């Protein structure tokens, strides 16, 4: 069996590895351009259109106002293509929120498609056996230093309430 995390994951207090990736609209998002934000969340997820990932991202979509109040940027990263992420964002919007109306995805879905998994690997968040990111979340402060790392099993959803609680601490600083 291959080593699932060939690179060491950055620990709390260390600078986050820089990257640039395209979002679901084909726009380039560079981590370095987010310096000075109240906080940044890098949320690696295995696959678009999968059950667990879909439930996580739908919960974030439904609770986006809570994230927005904190003023943090959320970047959800998978190895899917930009075209797949665009279709996925549209499907998430069609699924709607609590009132069953269309609710747009107001956060970036970033493509780590090519070179395949390069961003996830730089964070020690790539499963070589499955060929996809692990379910890891990195909370960064405004200087783009890692403040917290939260991991969940491949088949388990992250605790979004726990994530929001951690973000509140970073956003207050």
From TrEMBL:
Pfam families associated with the record: AhpC-TSA (PF00578)
Active site (catalytic residues): 53
Swiss-Prot/TrEMBL GO biological process terms: cell redox homeostasis; cellular response to stress; hydrogen peroxide catabolic process; response to oxidative stress
Listed Gene3D superfamilies: Glutaredoxin (3.40.30.10)
One of the record's GO cellular component terms: cytosol
InterPro entries: AhpC/TSA, Peroxiredoxin, Peroxiredoxin_AhpC-typ, Thioredoxin-like_sf, Thioredoxin_domain
Domain Thioredoxin positions: 10-172
Record carries keyword Oxidoreductase: yes
Top-rank lineage group of the source organism: Bacteria
Entry keyword set: Oxidoreductase
A GO MF label: thioredoxin peroxidase activity
Family statement: Belongs to the peroxiredoxin family. AhpC/Prx1 subfamily.
Function statement: Thiol-specific peroxidase that catalyzes the reduction of hydrogen peroxide and organic hydroperoxides to water and alcohols, respectively. Plays a role in cell protection against oxidative stress by detoxifying peroxides.
Protein name as it appears in the record: Redoxin domain-containing protein
Phylogenetic lineage: Bacteria, Bacillati, Actinomycetota, Actinomycetes, Micrococcales
């Amino acid at each position: 069996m291959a080593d699932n995390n060939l690179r060491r994951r950055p620990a709390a207090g260390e600078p986050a590895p820089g990257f640039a990736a395209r979002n679901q609209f084909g726009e380039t998002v560079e981590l370095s351009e987010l310096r000075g934000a109240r906080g940044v969340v890098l949320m690696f997820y295995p696959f678009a259109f999968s059950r667990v990932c879909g439930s996580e991202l739908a919960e974030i979509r439904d609770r986006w106002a809570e994230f927005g109040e904190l003023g943090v940027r959320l970047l959800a990263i998978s190895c899917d293509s930009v075209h797949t992420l665009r279709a996925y964002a549209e499907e998430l919007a069609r699924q709607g929120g609590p009132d069953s109306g269309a609710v747009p995805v107001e956060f970036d879905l970033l493509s780590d498609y090519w070179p395949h998994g390069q961003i996830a690997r730089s964070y020690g968040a790539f499963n070589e056996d499955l060929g996809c990111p692990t379910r890891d979340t990195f909370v960064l402060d405004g200087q783009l230093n890692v403040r917290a790392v939260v991991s969940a099993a491949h088949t388990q959803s992250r605790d979004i309430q726990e994530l929001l609680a951690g973000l509140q601490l970073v956003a207050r600083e």
